[in-house]
Automatic annotation (TrEMBL):
It comes from the Eukaryota. It comes from Aspergillus wentii DTO 134E9. This is Aminoglycoside phosphotransferase domain-containing protein. Gene3D superfamilies: 3.90.1200.10. Residues 63-297 form the Aminoglycoside phosphotransferase domain.
Length: 395
């Protein structure tokens, strides 16, 4: 399986970046630096400005210890055209307008390649402090407890707002107001792999979910229809085509179980681990939550779909145990603070609802790995899990 990093844009010359700043009606940067560590979906550059120029850009921008004002330029690859960038900026806009959750200021963005860079981009204010995964080993138990409490505060704000559909967020073409948009998920088939594994008639649009979806069951039905299309299309999935009639019947059966929609829809970051949290050691405060690109409105049971919550961002033998320890701390603090609903709402409301989610997750896994020729020793067991789900729905 290719990784998103393989499809990042080529390095941009300093002259190009200065011309870009001018094209965005920004002052000439006093320094430009390419970050050697890149995010999976972006090449990242730091554009530094004098304090006076920084204040002119936005009075709220922080001044760095060396006296400059830094902006973070994130240049996107063509992994998921348009909707990923728009989703992230729309979510950040909603969060800034409706909560006190700390996030970077959005200075400029373009969800198209129709700009001097030739790529989608977002230009953000630089948050003070360091990413928690960089300093995790130096944090005391007391600091960790304070950080967990601040994360609870963030989740309480996100979960306070109930939504009416499963979706990403987007901007209204007429008013630029934030509105429900297409679902955006990290498990999407992305453009480079669409070109590698599928006919030229297929695209990111045809191989992935749409939305918004009015209910949990509508989302599951949309997922089934998407995966059926891929099963019909790709020769590696021919052994699963005998399931197609039963999958049709599953879609029909979902409508007979309105109790499956017993959930709340909440805005979720979906990747809230320590590498995405900025922290100021001098104040003991979280200064920003980063990387909202795959966030969206989900059933409350799915606010942590990748199980990345509270991972310390380190690839070590002890990381999994440390995550379990922090999750237990999180649960204890939720109960102690009287916000146990954060825990309760993460639980499925019936055995059938849980089976429905497990079934679609295993079906997605099959459709994800077979075209890539991966995990052929696993797909037989995953098929059995899908069939067990179908049997639970009497189809």
């Amino acid at each position: 399986m290719a990784t998103p990093v393989e499809f990042l844009p080529p390095a941009l010359a300093e002259d190009t970046l200065r011309a870009f700043a001018a094209s965005q009606h920004l002052p000439n940067p006093i320094a430009i630096q390419a970050l050697t560590v890149t995010a999976e979906y972006h090449s990242i550059y730091v554009l530094s400005f004098s304090p006076d120029d920084g204040k002119a850009i936005s009075p709220s921008l922080a001044i760095t210890p060396d006296g400059s004002v830094d902006l973070i330029l994130r240049v996107s690859g063509q992994h998921i055209p348009r909707i990923k960038t728009e989703n992230e900026v729309a979510v950040m806009t909603w969060v800034r307008e409706n909560t006190t959750i700390p996030i970077p200021a959005v200075i400029r963005y373009d969800a198209t390649p129709n700009n001097l860079l030739g790529h989608e981009f977002s230009l953000l204010g630089r948050a003070p402090g360091k990413a928690l995964h960089q300093i995790y080993d130096d944090l005391s138990q007391g600091q960790l407890e304070q950080i967990v409490d601040q994360i609870i505060d963030i989740l309480v704000q996100l979960h306070k707002q109930s939504w009416h559909s499963i979706s990403g967020l987007a901007f209204s073409p007429s008013s630029h107001a934030v509105i429900p948009g297409r679902v955006v998920e990290e498990t999407f088939w992305q453009a480079p792999e669409v070109a590698r594994h599928f006919p030229s008639s297929e695209s990111v649009d045809t191989l992935n979910l749409q939305g918004p979806y009015e209910s949990y069951t509508a989302y599951i039905a949309g997922s089934i229809r998407t995966y059926q299309h891929i099963i019909r299309l790709h020769p590696s999935l021919e052994p699963f085509r005998d399931l197609l009639p039963r999958l049709d019947a599953w879609v029909d059966a979902l409508g007979q179980h309105p109790e499956l929609n017993n959930t709340r829809y909440v805005l979720a970051h979906k990747d809230l681990h320590m590498a995405n949290i900025m922290y100021d050691e001098s104040t003991g405060r979280i200064t920003a939550i980063l990387d909202w690109e795959f966030s969206g409105v989900v059933p409350s049971q799915r606010w942590d779909p990748s199980r990345a919550f509270l991972w310390n961002g380190q690839r070590s033998a002890s990381a999994a145990e440390e995550q379990k320890r922090l999750r237990k701390m999180f649960e204890e603090r939720c109960e102690a603070r009287g916000v146990g609903e954060l825990l309760d709402e993460a639980e499925h409301t019936s055995a059938l609802q849980e089976t429905m989610q497990e079934g679609i997750s295993y079906l997605r896994a099959i459709v994800e790995v077979c075209p890539r020729g991966q995990k052929q020793d696993k797909v037989g067991g995953w098929r059995a899990m899908v069939e067990a789900c179908l049997e639970a729905f009497d189809v």
